[in-house]
Write a structure and sequence with these properties.
Strand content: 35-45%
Shape: globular
Order of helices and strands: EEEEHEHEEHEHEEEEEHEEEEEE
Helix content: 10-25%
Mean pLDDT: 94
Length: 302
């Protein structure tokens, strides 16, 4: 049976404040989905998340499309997304199983016994384009413009989450690296759920989620609460999960100052969109988008 001799931790982009134009860099659309690394070993296909869970059973159409690729062995890096009517990827649609999941592929790390991780991104992209022919379930990451400033303007005009800038000469580096940089148009991040408040008015189950993020020293800091973005089904399912995590004291360094708060073990990670940070480091106008089961809580760092 054909075999890929390694498993990888994905290459991750660092956040940068502003778009830029730089020679030998490429600028791709930033997608709002779930990162998965695909391993093709003969007929066997694995789709491995960042927390090492195989999601192949969840996306059978993507698995079938990868299985049709002629290469005996292949490792692809990409993101599973669901697009809205304007062809903008929305994590909320993916999380709620609304729409067709597609695998947006942006890297090729191994092909027919050849390890490509030390090759340049430009060389890996060529290998990717030769291997993957876009189909219904498989598409290639879109390059927006050769100039990063123009790419950012395109992303802003289309309403994309942002852009990913990549050094075309860089090898594949596992973990967070400055060879890939992300520039956000819309503010959207992961936060740890550390508690919830009592419901008010006609709402059932809970009022708002108490959110936080870790600092480098491993302490969970309170970042505010989110009370919008929930439908009745989401409120009910989240409440059931939170009941099993209830704890007697707060997991946050700071006091959230919520009289009706119920605190929980900080294990669940929520995707949140927001306007900006306030001066006292709290989220302004946050909206709940969904839970992330592909990331550990300790990975959510301020």
């Amino acid at each position: 049976m054909p075999h890929v001799p390694f498993r990888i931790s994905p290459m991750l982009a660092e956040l940068t404040d502003a778009p830029f134009a730089r020679g030998d860099w490429v600028f791709e659309e930033k997608y709002d989905g779930v990162r998965l690394v695909a391993y093709k070993e003969g007929p066997n296909i694995s789709l491995i998340s960042r927390n090492d869970i195989n999601r192949a059973d969840r996306y059978p159409e993507i698995v079938a499309a990868i299985r049709k690729i002629r290469a005996e062995t292949l490792v692809l890096d990409g993101e599973v997304v669901v697009f809205d009517a304007k062809q903008i990827s929305r994590f909320q649609l993916l999380q709620q199983s609304k729409g067709r999941p597609q695998y947006v592929v942006f890297d090729c790390l191994y092909k027919n016994g050849k390890d490509l991780r030390k090759e340049s991104l430009a060389a890996r992209r060529k290998a990717l384009e030769k291997s993957v022919k876009p189909s219904g379930a498989l598409i290639l990451a879109a390059r927006l413009a050769a100039d990063g400033l123009k790419a950012f303007q395109i992303a802003k005009k289309r309403g994309l989450e942002g852009i990913i800038a990549k050094n075309a000469g860089a090898p594949y580096i596992e973990g967070r690296t400055s060879q890939w940089l992300k520039v956000k148009v819309h503010q959207e991040d992961e936060f740890v759920i550390g508690g919830f408040t009592k419901p008010g008015g006609v709402r059932q189950y809970f009022g708002a989620l108490l959110l936080g993020a870790y600092t480098r020293d491993g302490k969970l800091h309170y970042a505010g609460k989110v009370g919008t973005g929930f439908d009745e089904k989401t409120l009910a399912s989240l409440h059931r999960r939170l009941q099993g995590l209830v704890r007697p004291n707060s997991p946050f360094v700071e006091d959230p100052r919520e009289k009706s708060a119920t605190f929980v073990e900080p294990k669940l990670v929520a995707q949140i969109s927001y306007g900006e940070w306030t001066e006292d480091v709290k989220l302004r106008h946050p909206v709940y988008l969904g839970l992330r089961d592909d990331k550990r809580a300790k990975e959510v760092v301020m």
